[in-house]
## 1
Amino acid sequence: MPNVVRLKLVILGWAVASLFFTAVLMVSDIGGDKPLAFALYANAVHFALWALALPVLSRCVRRFPLSHAKRIRNAVVLLLTVAGFGFVVMLSQWAILYSTYFPYHSSSFWSFMKSELVRFLPSDILIGMVLVVALEGWRIWLDFQAERTRATELERQLAVARLDALRMQLHPHFLFNTLHAIAGLIAEQPPTARRMVVALGDLLRLTLKDTEVSVRSLAEELEFADLYLGIEKLRLGDRLMLGYDIEPEATSAEVPQLLLQPLFENAVRHGAARTVNACEVRFRAHRQGPELHLTLYNDGPVRSPGSSSPPFGVGLANTIARLRLYYKDQFQFEYTDRPEGGVQIDLTIPYKKAHNGRMRSNELYATAPIADTHADH
């Protein structure tokens, strides 16, 4: 806590305590026939002395905490310290009052202190004990806040580390698959292989460009996915047909980086890559209230009714893990086989408008019949 704030709190506590105990003195018989001005002055001096003693009491509480294993010893030390402070504060208070404002006693200071010692020393010890308990409670509260902040920071760092590990796992996975495809085309189609190398370079450049940013707009994510699909289009040719059905408002939605590429890769791998016929891959996106709905499906071989869904590979497993990191349980991910062949993925996530994202032209992703949006380079 800043020193200025502490000073303000101490001054506020001093003022409140002085007024409160002055009121108590005036409505009770404790103060006898003392006038209001004297009672207010006496309490102001009294609690000003306790305020000056607070730093030393605070050090004592930190040196001998009641929450320590040796709490009994520390409690005895603090009690003796409070008794000593109570005596010093009371003696200093009446010394100041005797020398500055004492209109109705003609006896000496020490003879007067004999009578006041019995009356006010227990109350000063009690005030000191209350301050010690308050300081100990404040210390425990600060330790609790510091521990909670530390736990939150550790949780954040763990989430970032897990996300980075997932991304580092996903990038080589895609890279090796693409290099394997290029290797297969070098002998058969050298020009296509060269174009794929150039396209792969563009893709890797965009991948490494914003490594510190974990989210971006759906339009930017589609731009990245287009680079990947361009590579697949070079490899598969007319066997791969692409289409988009996207609402303009959906393009500004915030999504995690590398959300779509593994989904498209799964659709291509289980569709056009497994057949000699033309296969359609279609992507839909629309906003429905506070949610963003994404659907991706592809043509492909019809799976037999008794067969189970194929296990998720690295791409889909990482996608689900990253969705849990971003949204916890506030998302839905469904992977189903289509009766007519192929698979369909339905994803629902909270809608949030992306900030400072590059919005891609709606002409490319307007609602339209299925069309091949990628031409050979």
Note: Strands lie at 215-217, 240-246, 254-256, 279-288, 291-298, 332-337, 343-350.
## 2
Amino acid sequence: MTESSSPQSREGPGCLPPDPTPESGGPPGTRIGPYKDCHYVASGLTAEVYRCSDRALKVIVETRDIEPHNPGREAKILGLLQKPCIPLLETFWDHQQRFVLAFPYMPLTLANLLDRGSPLPYSLVRTLFTDIFTALKQIHAQGIIHRDIKPSAVLLATPTGPAYLSDFGTAWHPTLSATAEPESEKVLDIGTGPYRAPEVLFGNRSYDTAVDMWGTGAMLAECCRLPSPKPLFESRPVHEDGNQLGLILSIFKTIGTPTRETWPEAASFKTPPFDMYRVFERQTWEAVLPRVGEEWRDLISSLVVYSSRITAEEVSILCCFMPHLDLS
């Protein structure tokens, strides 16, 4: 799993809770390289995050056997990207010889908004996901797979946006990742909780950018659910036995158990999902997402699907033809 792999915890290097700086008179912060008065925010599998004024510092604290986490590769990938991907401001080695990545501090994440438990305004969902799909279109055009789409990876400059895609620590690049992970031998331990794509659950090491589109679709559905945001699929904490099976069954109960007709590509997976699970009928999207506009349900259903998932490029074209796409 990635650095914030437990679905019960939304915090990690890509998730900065608002205003972690101690109140006036609190203990002084630590020094990290040229940055003074840095205050601890959160920890992940390989990194600790600190805030220093308007900067977020991702300090790499674990460098042994951490693939697919690779901070050097992360920095190189970030250097290829533009907004609405999170800008990498600089990298340096601190006095303890720890590698540090510096980003602009963002006070909120999409996870923070969802954790409030209140419905998100539909206009806000459109604004945020326009940024998210724009970021995905940009990275996918370069063959980059994010591999950990989740609400805490979407940073917000304000409660109303703009949104920035972050958490590229496990991203795959067709050239930079080729030695560690050949295209047909990618690692399967990717994604977080209810946003993990089914192809990786069944051993497909040749997965592509479609895993990001699945995660984004699951995230969009969560934002649309009424009367309050709720993950589309159930996922136990990663340390619990049966967590992967539970997610598989939740997917099957929602969009139906796949067949060779609905998911022909899965016949070549290491563990094909046929003839070994109870057969569940697919729920209608009207039942899953009641009171949501038909055009939005259609978009989600084209993302959260086993085969022929829509691409970020196709989403941008679709929205051009539906400029008034609304959740109301």
Note: The first strand starts at residue 30 and ends at 32.
## 3
Amino acid sequence: MFAPGAKPSFAWRHGLPGSSPDGYVSVLRISTDEGVEGVAIAPRPGSAPIMADLVERVFLKEFIGADPLQRELLWHRMWELDRVYEFPINILGIIDTALWDLAGRYYNAPTWEVLGGYRKEIEACASTSTFSTVEEFIDVATQCVELGYPALKVHAWGDARKDADLCQKLRDHLGPEYPLMYDGSAGFDMADAVYVGDALYEADYLWYEEPMREFNITAYKWLAERVRVPLNVGETSDGSFMNTADFISSGAATFVRTSTEIRGGFTGAMRIAHLADAYRLRAEPHGNTIYARHLCMAIPNCTYYESLVTSNPVVREAGINEKGIVMAPRGPGVGLPLGPHYPQELEPYVVDLAESVQK
């Protein structure tokens, strides 16, 4: 079914579209003959019609009759199907994500606990959208500190000189001890990526995230040889843990990104985390989603939960306390409502996916 976005619009770097409050996401709901259900969201723009088409053409015939507790088998089946259908990156893990939600409801435990469970709380990093000026970024940073956020990640303009200047001014304003990170949102070529990387090293930033598009791992290897700031890589690259392995073997990674939405569901996200851990690297869950909260509680080698800050005045995300701590989700499964929950005016456009898998 389609569900409307509820958050105010916000901006990313120059050249990237911002959010829209009237955008739609797609929701996949899976049920079993025992009455247990699971739900997952594909949040990327335009996912709803793609999801409806794939359910009707592919998923119904492939997964009705399957055992929903055989998540590993079904995860591999999705990858086999991807060989033919080339699923969008945000669709590839959606069956898996819904099945992990279903498993939590089946075992009456939160999904992070079913995944293994490592912690029950973690610090939340304030992660900005793109604000207009250096002065506004400094104002937002000040508010984040006052609200208790123990660290800050910056999404700036995608202009190497301006971004480097901003990052140094934030360091000067917040002092030498406050953890800072920077996300380039794939805005640079090699020359500009090196320029910003040098500035981040001088300003003692914890990590430098996705400065270039992630198609060419050799380019990241060369960047790692040219800058000293630690790189955080592999956020939007296809192939889940398989090409995360290439980022790691190239020597480009100190941190890797992991997520359910674009890294192959919970199964893919956990494989990335365990792979990184084998090399004593950190795997940082991406985004301010309920899925990321579960991953943070299940993964031993991560640093922060990413809490998106999109407004000025800053509003601290619900569920984060005055010390900047987010607690583990309670209750069975992921914790999203099973639905259907959608405005009445969308009734003609709803695709009910509740019978996608029968145990």
Note: Residues 47-63 form the longest helix (17 residues).
